């Protein structure tokens, strides 16, 4: 039970993810937390679409940013926090699918800046289809009262 | 009344925006549509937040992408449509505010690729505070049945 | 012998690379051309440095852009050409080393837009050190007289 | 005479620019240094071209990065230095022209991260033509022996 060790990164990631109200709005679940890698999944929902009925680029960005940001959480000190500085998203295929998987991985850890890459996949029948990629920079935050956890 | 001229870009933008279900999920309104420039506004809502209580970067991305994309709609033929290829967002200040304004403007029109820049502002008392910037590439789509309007 | 088949992608890539005068200015060599993957190498040269004596970010960008662009050439028709639309570079470590390796790989082929990812490494003694990553969008060009080969 | 005041930002920028050997390789000159804004100019040179004879995207990136980076130098303490974390470049038109102008401007100053935007123009006869835009993040560096000035 990682619930009993607050220093454990899985616990910290799950607690912080649980405070991201927007993830609940999106219907997103944290499905995997490993050292330097986090996965988030989400079912398709018509309320998350753009004008052609595909998953909105902003939804894809939100979930990839969360996956990359929480991947960064797994490699920092327990008392530090993470803020995203910037990210770029390439939209590779329309966001069509029954479910979506978002994976964030650390490309370069660091004491101040952490760089992560993310990939989004549509899951239906057959093989997962790559629909977007992200590269982002995260800043490690310490000692700021408004940015904890 | 632009409602009677389907070729009018304001009508087309409003109709397409109305089909972006995710904008309604975000509580976002289309508040200004000019040639090569679109503005979207949104009140703060706790269901749109990240773990520190700020507006989620994904919400900012969604609204900036929509503002940039619809700015692109204002400069294309009535029978064409727009898909975002990629964007980058720089998060400049935490998303704190009572309301938020997202402006997209065309930097470079084109027959195939349109480049747009966006800026997001927090509105409370006092001057608008710049919280994010976006640069994105949009592709003009013609003749695809699944990408119209 | 690919020299005798002008439709061969290796020949086309080498011929086009040979016309990139800037690659000669940088002292860059095309060292590997595979389907969807190209590598370029370059020795350190003091004339390529920024103010702290590291390899200039612009040099890294030039070589990664060339590696990504030529990776795109390997997946297009012989009579098409490639122009870069955009790229983002994350600078992960200072550009210190005796030699540098730049690899570009296709993430998403396409008839109009090709997305590629690149990685730059410093080579000295010991393992290659990742110094930069790129993600970029390339446009496939056909029928434009000023953009051939 | 700013040459006599080493704390003056114009002096520091000129001295640091003078140490960027790659700027000399490109034939680039520092033509304007204002608070939060720097301009660099460069004549067209066939040795700086890509395969179609246009200015190489890497040259454009190098000069925009330098313009943005030195714009950041103008807003930091005299004993601090700047390293680029990341940038994105959108290539808007082919790099054709007799001369090129690169302007970097600070979008968001900061004690750790500075965000700058840049624009590149081709200058021939007639109005300047916008050929590229950049957005980049710079990190303020203090107390590192290998990164000074």
UniProtKB/TrEMBL annotation, chains A, B, C, D:
Which top EC class is given?
hydrolase
Q: Which GO terms describe its molecular function?
A: fatty acyl-CoA hydrolase activity
What InterPro entries does this protein's entry cite?
Answer: HotDog_dom_sf, PAAI_dom, Thioestr_dom
Keywords, sorted A to Z: Hydrolase
- UniProt cross-references to Pfam families, sorted A to Z: 4HBT
EC no. given is 3.1.2.20
Question: Locate the Thioesterase domain: which residues?
Answer: 52-124
Which reaction equations make up its catalytic activity?
a medium-chain fatty acyl-CoA + H2O = a medium-chain fatty acid + CoA + H(+); a long-chain fatty acyl-CoA + H2O = a long-chain fatty acid + CoA + H(+); a fatty acyl-CoA + H2O = a fatty acid + CoA + H(+)
Give the family from UniProt: Belongs to the YigI thioesterase family.
Q: What is this protein called?
A: Medium/long-chain acyl-CoA thioesterase YigI
